Amino acid sequence: DTGVSQDPRHKITKRGQNVTFRCDPISEHNRLYWYRQTLGQGPEFLTYFQNEAQLEKSRLLSDRFSAERPKGSFSTLEIQRTEQGDSAMYLCASSPWGVLGQWSYNEQFFGPGTRLTVL
Amino acid sequence: AQRVTQPEKLLSVFKGAPVELKCNYSYSGSPELFWYVQYSRQRLQLLLRHISRESIKGFTADLNKGETSFHLKKPFAQEEDSAMYYCALRSRSSNTGKLIFGQGTTLQVKP
Q1: 36-55 in B: which are within 8 Å (CB) of A?
Q2: How distant is the Cα of A87 from the closest Cα of chain B, in angstroms?
């Protein structure tokens, strides 16, 4: 499977614990996005990377959240001191931005998501 | 403020009936509009985008800038169209490429 992969697919944790999710983008995609989706809502943008540089963070991303993309390949999203409100599906997407033009045809390909449940 | 609104949480139709999934947006600049679909137990995937002006799986969507709408239409629904549909926009002037999604509409096509 050459699509975007995410690990783990499901994570159950207790409030106050730290969790880390991993996203492996499609090879050679220079852009990587993180979104969060809560029940009954559409995905909401959290942050994105162009290669290894994190270029924008949403106000949804509190200081308990940190994301990295070392070497511009896979990315990790860590949540410290989890709260019940962090329970959601965390989606990763990658895109070949700029390859065919600044915005045209730069489709985002989504991974299966990591479902986090905080007890 | 940038916003995408899908007024219907659930749309239920019979096979062969026409389908229209509504999407309205609020955006001050020039947006690019998309429809994404998520079939049961599958990942979110792009269905179509307004700049392509193409029909995918019989679905079409026309951007109406006057009404700020991007409704998704299909003349004859099929059972395999049952899925969750999300309308999304992104800025054509911003370099972020981030997508702003609506709340989604579940399409249920009954036999």
Answers
A1: 43-46, 51
A2: 17
| b/e burial code for range B19-29 (CB count within 10 A of at least 16 → b) | bebbbbbebee
| Angle subtended at Cα B65 by Cα B63 and Cα B67, rounded to the nearest 5 degrees | 100
Helix ranges (H only) for chain A are none
For residues B51 and B31, the answer to whether their CB atoms sit within 8 Å is no
What pLDDT, in 10s, does the model give residues B84-96? Answer: 999 999 988 778 8
Pairing of strands A88-95, A31-37: antiparallel
* Residue type for position A101: G
Contacts of B32 in chain A (CB under 8 A): 103
Q: How many residues does chain A have?
A: 119
Structure tokens at B103: 């709340």
Beta strands in chain A (DSSP E): 5-7, 10-13, 19-24, 31-37, 44-50, 53-57, 65-68, 75-79, 88-95, 109-110, 114-118
- pLDDT tens track for A13-38: 999 999 999 999 999 899 999 999 99
